[in-house]
Amino acid sequence: MAVPDFQTIMYPFLEVIKDGQIYSLDQMVEMLSVHFSLNSDDLRERIPSGKQPLFRNRVGWSRSYLDKAGLIITPSRGHYQITELGKQALNDATLSYINIAFLRRFEAFQQWESTFNSEGSNDLTGSTVIEEIQAETPDVIIGKATENLHKSLKYELLQLLKSKTPDFFERFVVELLAKMGYGGVDASNFEVVGQSNDGGIDGIIYQDHLRIEKIYVQAKKWDSTKVSPKDIRDFIGALNLKGTTKGVFITTSTFTNEALNAANQNPHNKIVLIDSDRLLELAIQFNVGIQTKKIIEIKEIDNDFFED
User: Fold this and answer.
1) Restriction system protein Mrr-like N-terminal domain location, by residue (predicted)?
2) Which of 77, 88, 183, 224 is buried most, with the most CB atoms less than 10 Å from its CB?
3) What is the pLDDT of residues 241-300, one digit of tens each?
4) Whole-angstrom Cα distance, residue 26 to residue 116?
5) What is the β-pairing status of strands 214-220 and 190-192?
6) Which domain holds residue 281?
7) Same domain for 97 and 176?
8) Model-level pTM?
9) 270 and 188: one domain?
């Protein structure tokens, strides 16, 4: 048979791991290829770039969408396990097929998909998208796809950061600032100091080898609580106790308008505020917790070459 599309793979994907064990991607590809009775020719078929087998690629996309809905988890890289939510879905006697429309029942998937809805509907399976693709030029299609991948990456990165410990987030922040060039290239110019009695300081950037010039860092790993003006004033107070006016306040949340104003009230203070969106953009730009999956070259005719 022909290689099935990624939505057709999703229900069998859950079925073969319903025992709750952890399976690798190679095991999933093998078990699912047996389920769909794929022959050697089917398994040799590759995606247009030629860099990956088509079936393996579609199994990967199925995994990604099931994960977004919370039906599976990835306990380690390239390994998958069904969740209680996934088991509950399989217990539905009327269910025999899973597609994106079904995944929209789950809050986690709704939250993920909402990241694409800033410019109207984005039904990933409906006729609207097909009509848009047919009406757009390839450059526009590639641009929109790239934008959606970028939004999805930011969403996944934020969820990962929120799932980690405060200590991990503090180390992440210091690593990011190091990649951005603060403190030079010497790793000893950075120090994570966040403790229960840190006085509002989680990290220190030493701007010179004698450690005279310092920038202090506050890292707040919050889910939804916005940073208040009191938090900013407390941070400024902690800076004053250290004898400095330079600080960077970074959060996985956002700042209230009053907090933004509090940071700018004193012109002598140099307080930089970085909210979740800016944090994610910087992490992606400087490849902290991020890796490049592939680079695509788009070529065009060199008209100058052909001119007389």
Assistant:
1) 6-91
2) 183
3) 888 888 999 999 999 999 999 998 888 888 999 999 999 999 999 999 999 887 888 887
4) 31
5) unpaired
6) 166-285
7) no
8) 0.68
9) yes
